[in-house]
Amino acid sequence: MLLWKRVTESKSLRLIRMRRYQFERLALDEWEAIDRSAAAPTFFARPAWAKALADAHPYLTAWPLRCEIKPHGHAIIPLMRGSRGRFGWNVFEGMPFGSYTAILDQTNAPVTSEIAEAVVTDLLAKADAILLNPWPLKPLRAPASIIRKLEEASVIDISGGPEQALSKMPSKSRRMVGQARRRGVQCAIETDEQAVDRYYELLEDAALNRWHISSPRTSKELLRRVAFHGKDSVEIWIARFEGKPVAGAVALYGSQEVLLWTTATRPGMEILRPHNLLHAEIEEHAAKRGIQWYNLGSSGGLAGVLKFKGSLGATSIEYETIRRESLPFRAVKGLKRRFGRTSQDEPHPVV
Q1: pLDDT tens readout for residues 63-112
Q2: SS3 breakdown of the chain: % helix, strand, coil, rounded to 5?
Q3: Most buried residue among 23, 150, 214, 277 by CB atoms closer than 10 A?
Q4: Is the C-alpha dihedral spanning 188, 177, 207, 43 positive or negative?
């Protein structure tokens, strides 16, 4: 009986790999209904993120795809479609600006690696241009001929509850958390109408006077739309000293992870260690909510950032982004670049 089961499963997987899937656009209201029943594991693969992106960037359209996988039900692929241009290109990204997608079943749980590989392989062959940035905790495999780029994310397993989660923080960082509290720093989720403005002021200050760039890489409009669509899955945390904001963070929730999307500390306030306290408080709060992973995201190749995340107890994991452009798409793009044209007909994404 066990041997027959293995043979049956093996044959089923071979059929999955051979199948050419028919992809259809999943209606946004249906996608939202699925999400209300059971959220995707990462916020970035949820309708709220897609709707916020579309609001803030008009050249992007929420375009989740669905395909049937017999006898396994349906697979859902959260994607955004870029502008189609003069030639009506099918150009997709999952998801833009370094955010994630995942191959999910009809209950919003990640599908098996074998099903994901089959779906991705077929999808790559059908799109004119596509870039997939998979959820690092469920990485995707793709054919050897596909362009892949190595990325990393720093994560902490907080599934053991708040006490066990904080125990993973090295002693030096725990001392800094204690220092911040003794000095009078206090952290809380702020939900009033000015919370976005309050956090963005911290972000602008840090961008200009700490990172020495003219403006934050995250727009205020996108932050507003994320807070609006994400509702209680988005938390704006503010650390205050003597009543004044000195640091902040925006935490995004899926069913399995809380992701620190953006953080900022007011220049000159680092000595108070508010960022250490913020991480400890958010981590503890998320563990109480039953979240499994505390995702600190990519370090962007910055050794100092990666070291700081390690000091919090995070482990760096590697994953690959997957990219493909069809021959016609590459030819047209190459001609435009050759003749120095920056035509608005060329699609926007990011591939």
Answers
A1: 999 999 887 789 999 999 998 777 788 899 999 999 999 999 999 999 99
A2: 40, 25, 35
A3: 277
A4: negative
Q: Judge whether residue 26 has pLDDT over 70.
A: yes
Q: Which residues contact 40 (CB under 8 A, 6 or more apart)?
A: 46, 78, 102, 104, 108, 254, 255
- Write the CB contacts of 332 (distance below 8 Å, at least 6 apart in sequence): 87, 346
* CB neighbour list of residue 267: distance below 8 Å, 6 or more residues apart: 205, 206, 209, 210
Phi, then psi, of 20 in degrees rounded to 5: -100, 110
Strand ranges, E, within 86-146 = 91-94, 104-105, 129-132
Residue type, position 152, single letter: E
15 pLDDT exceeds 50?
no
Q: Cα(69)–Cα(304) distance, rounded to whole angstroms?
A: 44
Q: Looking at residue 87, what is its pLDDT? A: 77
User: How far is Cα 339 from Cα 350, in angstroms, rounded to an integer?
Assistant: 20
Cα angle 254-102-94, degrees, rounded to a multiple of 5: 105
d(CA 229, CA 41): 17
Strand order of the β-sheet with 315-325 is 61-62, 80-81, 91-94, 129-132, 315-325, 147-157, 293-297, 257-265, 244-253, 234-241, 186-189
247-284 per-position pLDDT tens digit: 999 999 999 999 999 999 999 999 999 999 999 999 99
The separation between the first and the last C-alpha atoms of the chain, rounded to the nearest angstrom, is 48
